[in-house]
UniProtKB/TrEMBL annotation:
Designated name of the protein: AB hydrolase-1 domain-containing protein
Domain of life from the UniProt record: Eukaryota
Gene3D superfamilies for the chain: alpha/beta hydrolase
Family statement drawn from the similarity comment of this UniProt entry: Belongs to the AB hydrolase superfamily. AB hydrolase 4 family.
C-alpha cells in the first residue's frame, strides 16, 4: 500500500543549483531605470531573476519516473499544442553543405524591430520540446510572451534540409552552428543572440560556447538535457540490458532511418569520398534496430564532421572527442544548464567541472540546475484535469532568456586579462558571408526554403537527438 501511495504522490523538491565558488560579475540593466547598471554574480542574478528555479517541481502523478516522462515525450500527441510557423532560409556552406534556418514569427505575420532579441535554437523545428519554448518566447508581450524572434538551426539532413555534401551532422561538430550564427548576426547586427540547445543540440551549443570563449556571438546560452560525457553515457546505455534494448536501439533505429532517407544523395559521393564509401558499406550490414554505438561506429565516425578530425578509429574515440563537459571551464558568457537526475539517457552530470571539485578549476559563468525528476526533455507536471500536463521547464527558461536578452548587456571576468572579441563579418566578392580570421568558413543564402509548419514531420523525442 505504501508503494502505491508513493507512486501516486511523487516526491517534490526544488532544483539543486550548482555554481562555482569563484564568481564572475555581470553588469545588468536595472528594470526600474534602463540607464542604471547593477552588478550581479551569476548566483545572485538567477536567484533574483529566475524565481522558478527556486520553487519545487512536482512531476505529474502518472509520470513519476524518468522512464515514463521520456516515454510520454515520444508517444504523446503534441501536434495541436504550441503551433509555430516559420520562414525557412537555406544556407549553402563553403564546403558544399546546406543548412536550414527557420525564423519565427514569419515576416508576413508580424514585423519586429531589428534589435529584437533572437533565440537561436539547436535543432529540429518540428520537435514538440522546441515549439514548447519558442511558442511563448515569440508570442507578443500582450499575450504573455517575450515578443522575441526565434531562429532554429536545422543541421544537414534534418527537418527537410537536403544533403548536398559528403557530410552528415554529429554531436561534436560545431562549424555549422558557427556559420549559422554568422549569418544571423549579419542579418540582425543590432540584435542580441541567445542560444538554447536540446539534447544533442545542447551538446553542440556547449562545445561552441567553450570553443569560442569571449569570441562567442551568442550573448548567453541555455542547455536542456545535455548529454555532457557521451562516452560515459554510451557505456551506460550499452551495458544495461533494458537501456540497450529500449533507448540505444530506438536511437540507432531513428538514425538508420534518417541515413536511409538520404541514401541516394550520399551515393553520389562514393566515387570521390572514401569516408562516405566506408559508411555506406557498413550501413548495409546493420540490422533494422541497431544499437546506437553500432550506428555511430558504422556511419557517424566517418561522416559526422569535416576532415580532420573525421574519420575516427572507433565510435568510442568519436564519443571522447564529441563530449561537451570538457568545454565547460572555457565558457565566457552567462550559461544555464538544466538536467534531471532520473534522465535515462544522460547518466552523468559534470558538477565538478563548475564547482571546482576534484582538482577542476571551476567556472563562475556556469550554473547547472538539477531536478530530481523530469526524464529526458520531459519535465511534465499536472495542468488540471485527469491527464492534463504542461512542461515545468518552460517558465524558468523564459525567465532566463528574458534576463539575458534584455538585462545582461556587458559581462566581465573578475580575473584580469584582455578580452578577445569576435572577428568582423564581411561579404566577399563572390557573395559569401565570412568572418575575418576564419577564411575557411562562410555561407550564403540560396533559393528554396519558404513557409514551414512547425508540426509537420513530428517524429518524437528520440528522432531529434
Amino acid at each position: 500500500m505504501g508503494s502505491v501511495l508513493s507512486y501516486m504522490n511523487p516526491t517534490t523538491s526544488s532544483p539543486t543549483l550548482h555554481f562555482s565558488s569563484k564568481p564572475v560579475y555581470l553588469s545588468v540593466r536595472s528594470q526600474s531605470d534602463s540607464g542604471q547598471v547593477e552588478s550581479y554574480t551569476l548566483r545572485s542574478l538567477i536567484e533574483s531573476k529566475c524565481p522558478s528555479l527556486l520553487t519545487e517541481y512536482r512531476p505529474a502523478w502518472w509520470l513519476k519516473s524518468g522512464h515514463l516522462q521520456t516515454f510520454y515525450c515520444v508517444t504523446g500527441d503534441f501536434s495541436k499544442i504550441d503551433p509555430v510557423e516559420y520562414d525557412r532560409k537555406l544556407l549553402r556552406l563553403m564546403d558544399g553543405g546546406t543548412l536550414g534556418v527557420d525564423f519565427t514569427p514569419p515576416a508576413s505575420e508580424r514585423t519586429l524591430k531589428d534589435d529584437t532579441p533572437i533565440v537561436v535554437v539547436m535543432h529540429g523545428s518540428h520537435e514538440s520540446y522546441v515549439r514548447s519554448i519558442l511558442s511563448p518566447v515569440c508570442a507578443q508581450v500582450e499575450e504573455g510572451g517575450l515578443g522575441y524572434r526565434g531562429a532554429v538551426v536545422n543541421f544537414r539532413g534534418c527537418a527537410g534540409t537536403p544533403i548536398t555534401s559528403p557530410q552528415l551532422y554529429s554531436a561534436g561538430h560545431t562549424d555549422d552552428l558557427r556559420q549559422a550564427v554568422m549569418y544571423i548576426s549579419k542579418m540582425y547586427p543590432n540584435a542580441p543572440l541567445i542560444g538554447i540547445g536540446f539534447s544533442l543540440g545542447a551538446n553542440v551549443l556547449t562545445r561552441y560556447l567553450g570553443q569560442e570563449g569571449h569570441r562567442s556571438r551568442l550573448a548567453g546560452g541555455c542547455a536542456l538535457a545535455c548529454p555532457w560525457d557521451i562516452l560515459k553515457n554510451s557505456l551506460r546505455l550499452e551495458h544495461n540490458f533494458f537501456y540497450r534494448q529500449v533507448y540505444s536501439k530506438a536511437l540507432g533505429r531513428n538514425l538508420l532511418r534518417l541515413m536511409r532517407s538520404h541514401l541516394s544523395e550520399f551515393s553520389k559521393y562514393t566515387p570521390t569520398s572514401e569516408n562516405v564509401s566506408s559508411a555506406l558499406s557498413l550501413l548495409s550490414t546493420l540490422p533494422e534496430r541497431p544499437n546506437l554505438i553500432s550506428f555511430d561506429d558504422s556511419v557517424t565516425r566517418f561522416i559526422g564532421g569535416c576532415s580532420p578530425p573525421f574519420p575516427f578509429a572507433s565510435a568510442l574515440d568519436y564519443y571522447t572527442w564529441a563530449s561537451s563537459h570538457t568545454q565547460l571551464p572555457h565558457i565566457r558568457v552567462p550559461f544555464l544548464a538544466i538536467s534531471a537526475e532520473d534522465d535515462p539517457i544522460v547518466g552523468h552530470i559534470p558538477i565538478e567541472e563548475i564547482n571546482g571539485e576534484d582538482g577542476k578549476e571551476g567556472n563562475g559563468w556556469v550554473c547547472i540546475a538539477v531536478t530530481k525528476g523530469g526524464g529526458h526533455l520531459g519535465w511534465f507536471e499536472d495542468d488540471g484535469g485527469v491527464a492534463g500536463v504542461k512542461r515545468w521547464v518552460r517558465k524558468p527558461v523564459m525567465e532566463w532568456l528574458k534576463t539575458v536578452g534584455e538585462g545582461v548587456f556587458l559581462a566581465k571576468e573578475s580575473e584580469k586579462g584582455s578580452i578577445e572579441a569576435a572577428g568582423e563579418i564581411f561579404v566577399d566578392n563572390d557573395g559569401w558571408i565570412r568572418e575575418v580570421g576564419r577564411e575557411g568558413l562562410g555561407c550564403r543564402e540560396i533559393e528554396g526554403g519558404g513557409r514551414v509548419h512547425g508540426v509537420e514531420g513530428e517524429e518524437g523525442l528520440l528522432a531529434g537527438l
